[in-house]
Amino acid sequence: MKETFDVAIVGAGPAGISAACILADAGIRTIVFERGEYPGAKNLSGGVLYGHNLAQILPDYVERHCPVERNIVESRVWYLSRESGYNLGYRDSVFAADRKYNAFTVGRAKFDRWYAEQARMKGALVVPSTVVVDLIRNGHGAVAGVVTGRTDGEVQAKITLLADGVNSPLATRAGFRRELAPEEVALAVKEVIELPGEVISQRFCVSGTEGVTAEILGEIAGGMDAVGFLYTNQSSLSLGLGANLADFAAFKLKPYELIEAFKQHPMIAPLISGGKTLEYTAHWLAEGGYDTIPHLYGDGYLIAGDSAMLFNALHREGNNLAMASGKMAAEAIIEAVHRGNFSRKGLSGYGERLAGSFILKDMKKYRKFGRFLYQHKEIFDRLPALSSFAAREMLTVNGVAKNQKQRLIGREFRRQGMSLFRLLRLLWQAWRAVK
């Protein structure tokens, strides 16, 4: 398999295939390696994509029969204690009409397979069931291709794009990225729960192919720094939660126990009642933020998507950052190929594009948010419980005057170490983490 290509891409996820589509359109000879049996076989996500970023790669993705599950018309945020919770939702008819497919759910196994097929039809060679075990270096130390696990599996390439996920062994082994600390990574677990489509529509008050997403915070993982999600598909729900890896080690909790308890919560149990679990999966999430982004390009190589730690934890954006960064990487590669300059300087257009884009601007804006959550465990234990206690007392009609209830609530907050000053300080720190 000693062949030569203009570009070798490691990973057939959103970043790698986005790049492959752009490169193939430009006539750049491109090969994509995927370790799974097929693209999507080893991928996990909450299942939400954004039409804007996909349309920049495939403007006619709807006509190409993109496997959309449901178009999202309502977004919810829940803040839960163990037995109760708050629900804030926003629904807008514009997302069913003028801005349809602003966000939509997909099954990554189906979507990634479909997306890779679009790249193949454009002319890219997609090779599944192939593990890239090393990088080829030339006499000057520049990356000059990849070594696969196949017999005679060396593939020469002018430029190599690493898009093989957050746990990128190639980037780490090559010294392009340092080993991640446990507090910079989250372990996410997810179940896909089968339900009839009409039942899902009734329970979430939508019609046709409209859908709802819920992002969930609070006391959902035994006090760990964790975020959950519940997304609607055509005939299933995606339910999961991710918690900081360092917390998993410190709290000694098992992921499957957490999601089983999560399913019993009174805000969730009625929505999944009668459902059948179709699959259970786990995956790492890049939660380190802006300060963990590695050198994104060098002599003969670029890094995109999760491999580059491009993940916006606050807005739970990852797939769209992968697509956008893959597109920018491809555009920089095209420039480099036309100039015949595959050095770090020749690929610097990638860094310039990222620096001017929403990706790095947003990640820089929220660079302190992940650390804020990790360092303030009261957000995940005492505060949800106290918030629910306050709501429960104020909503209970039992002949007690409201000013007495307010004093009772104030005493309980102070008893739990959450004085008014501490709450205001927490709000101030939260604002500073996202300003």
Describe the structure.
Helix 1 links the parallel strand 1 and strand 2. Strands 3, 4, 5, 6, 11, 12, 13, 14 and 15 form a 9-stranded mixed beta sheet that branches. Strands 1, 2, 7, 8, 9, 10, 16 and 17 form an 8-stranded mixed beta sheet that branches. The chain has 15 helices and 17 strands. With 435 residues, the protein is of the alpha/beta class. Helix 1 packs parallel to helix 3, helix 9 runs antiparallel to helix 10 and helix 13 runs antiparallel to helix 14.
Explain briefly what this protein structure is.
The protein has 435 residues and is of the alpha/beta class.
How does the SSE layout of this entry go?
Elements: E1 3-10, H1 14-25, E2 30-33, E3 48-50, H2 51-57, E4 68-80, E5 85-91, E6 103-106, H3 108-122, E7 125-127, E8 132-137, E9 143-148, E10 154-162, H4 169-173, E11 185-194, H5 197-204, E12 210-218, E13 226-232, E14 236-244, H6 245-251, H7 255-263, H8 269-272, E15 276-286, E16 297-298, E17 301-303, H9 319-339, H10 348-355, H11 358-365, H12 369-375, H13 382-395, H14 402-415, H15 420-434
Parallel strand pairs: 1-2, 1-10, 2-7, 4-12, 10-17
Antiparallel strand pairs: 3-6, 4-5, 4-6, 8-9, 9-10, 11-14, 11-15, 12-13, 13-14, 16-17
